[in-house]
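so the lab meeting is tmrw and i was supposed to have these ready like two days ago... anyway. pasting both below. for each one the top line is the aa sequence and the line under it is the structure tokens. i havent really looked at them closely yet so no promises
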Amino acid sequence: MSVALDDMGDDVWKVLQTIQVLNKDPGALKMLVRRVSRVVFDKRAVNHVVSATILTGAVIALSLAVFSWSQSRSSEYTSEFSETVDAETAKLKEKLIFEHVSYCNPSHNLTVYLFNCGTTDDTKIKSVYVSKDDWLVVFSTPILYSLDGAPIPDQDVDVGEEAYVVLALSSTLSSGYYSIRVVTIRGASFGSNFVA
């Protein structure tokens, strides 16, 4: 029998030795059964394993949620930044010059001729400010006219295009120097002076 045992692997050999010891000592078998049952049926050990597994799962889920949120916020910030840069670039490319400013006394109309010499199309006028010392009049979204007198359909001044606005003042302008400022939708501001 010892020749057959020597041919078997080490694990089988250990199992057989344990069986031989258990056959000689019945109390050892009872002690082995108790140890195995303690390990298998010990609720405290299982509770620790289950709680550690749940805690690990919660940490992984939370970290994935934070990662997902940070990725979405990052992409939002990137798109907002690119939109802002595009808008500011278009604003810097706007360039309106005043070709002529004329005031008609009986009708109280101020006519402002503009030319877009910038590199951005679709320059829309948001407001026009006329001022002298402590006097200020604001005109919001004035109507743009082409040089033939017809209103411009899209109400913007494209590159190389000329247009004018007619500002109806409520009273007669006294003689003197006045300032005029045109503000576009993108926020660019262009100013000039005229004599009434």
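ok protien two:
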Amino acid sequence: MDRSFALTPGKRVLYLTKDPDLVRRQLAGTLTLTMNDVKAEDLLDDINTDAMTPAWVCFDFDPKDIAKNACVVARRDIPGKEGKQFDIPLDGAARHIDGLLREIQKNLFDRAKKFRDANMRTADTYDEFKRMIEEPGFIWAHWDGTRATEDRIQEETKATIRVIPFDGPKEPGKCMVTGQPSERRVVFARAY
């Protein structure tokens, strides 16, 4: 059986063998293995891809998949088997992965926006603010725009201003701490 496949010129495959010396020699460039040099049972099968590939998409090149000129793509935003896609042809993998990364980005954005929206609250008084800040989330509140008030809020509650929405709606009011005029609400939160 022919166990060969084509790589981009100048590229090579790193075979993660159970023999650490073979891996070291491959990394050092003193050993070049081919599929004919290894058997499936010689390869590691319990690799922690989280430690090796800090990315949103991981690839699994099993010898059986390579023989089919295919790979397995695993999404890290969907854990387990549900996030894996099998038999992705290598010649279309880049296009497939590009679409997948765009979908993952949209999913992460939508998830963050949903979390943000579900955890936004509004405080009109400083006492109300101090109660609300004990729970994770974001609080809209009026602030007089001074550094002294901002420092006082941080010292007393450990909360800091996260967003001053200059292009957002102006909602004149009074600072929750000093009672001084405020042009708009700002977003406060604690670091957790």
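from a quick look at the 2nd one: The two ends are 57 Å apart (CA to CA). The chain has a mean pLDDT of 84. will dig more after coffe
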